[in-house]
Amino acid sequence: MMSDWLIALILGIVEGLTEFLPVSSTGHLILVNEFASFQDKEFSQTFDMFIQVGAILSVLIYFWKRLWIFDKDAGHIDRDKLDIWLKTIVGVIPALALGYLFKDFIEEHLLNSFVVAISLIVGGVLLLFIEKQFTRPVIHSLRDLSYGKAFSIGLCQCLAMIPGVSRSASSIIGGLALGLNRVTAAEFSFFLAIPTLTAASAYFLIRHAMGFNAYQFLILSFGFAVSFIVAYLVIAVFMKFIKTNNFVSFGIYRIILGTAILLYFYFSK
C-alpha cells in the first residue's frame, strides 16, 4: 500500500503537469486515483481540489508583471493590464453560470473513466482539426482581443465541465478558431484559469468542508507545494514550446491515451 506522502507527491506532480496543458488535469487525476488514492474518499476529493490552488498560484507568480495593474513608477492604474482583467472577467462569466446550473449533474453522472477516455479522444481530434484548418491568425496580442471574442472563448471553456475535455484545451481551441495565434490563445487560457479554478475550488471546499487534523493539513500543504512548483515549471516550458511548435503532439497524445484507457477498462472487466 502506498504511503500518503507518496500519493500526495504523485497527485501533485500530475496536477502540476497537466493543469495548463491541453490534456485534461481532471481526467488524469480521475485515472491516477484508480491506482493511487487516499483511503478517505472525502479527503481525497478535497485534496484534488486543493492542489489546484497551487497551480493557480503558479500562474499569478509567473505572469505577475502582466497582471499587476498598479504602475508603481507612474502611480496609476495600467489600463492595458486592467483591460486583460476585464476581458478575463467577461470570459469567465459563462463558466460560472453554467457551472452553477450543472454542477450536481456533472458530479453524479460524468466523473468516470469512460467519459474521460471519450473526451480525450474527441478533444485530440479537434486539436488536430483546428491546427490544420486555422493556420492564419489575425489576433497577435490580448490588446487586439475584443470583449465579444473573450466571451466566446469563455463559452468554449465550458466544454471542460465534461471530465477529460480539458479547460486549457477547450479555451485554446476556441481561441485558435476565433483567430488568436498560439501564444495569445495560451496566455488567455492561463488568465481564464485564475477566476475559473478559484471559483470552482472555493465552491467545492466550502461545500465539502471538513475538519482536518494536523497530519492531513501537512499532506494538503505538501501536495499544494508540489503542484505549485511543477505547474510553474510547466508554464515556463510550455510558453517557450508554443512559440515554435504547434499543438499536434498534444492532440496525438490525447487520442493514444483515450484509446489506451478504453482498451484497459474493456479487457479488465
Main sheet strand line-up: 1-2
Q: Can you summarize the main beta sheet? A: 2 strands, antiparallel
Terminal-residue CA separation: 23 Å
Low-pLDDT ranges? none
Element order, helices and strands? HHHHEEHHHHHHH
Radius of gyration: 18 Å
Number of domains: 1
Percent helix range: over 70%
**Global geometry:** globular
Q: What percent strand?
A: under 5%
The number of helical runs is 11
Structural category = mainly alpha
Mean pLDDT: 89
Tell me the quaternary state.
single chain
Count the beta strands.
Answer: 2
Question: Can you tell me about this structure?
Answer:
This protein is mainly alpha-helical and 269 residues long. The chain has one domain (4-267). It is 74% helix and 1% strand. It has eleven helices and two strands. A two-stranded antiparallel ribbon has the order 1-2. Strand 1 and strand 2 (76-77) form a beta hairpin. Helix 3 runs antiparallel to helix 9 and helix 5 crosses helix 9. The radius of gyration is 18 Å and the shape is globular. The two termini are 23 Å apart. The mean pLDDT is 89.
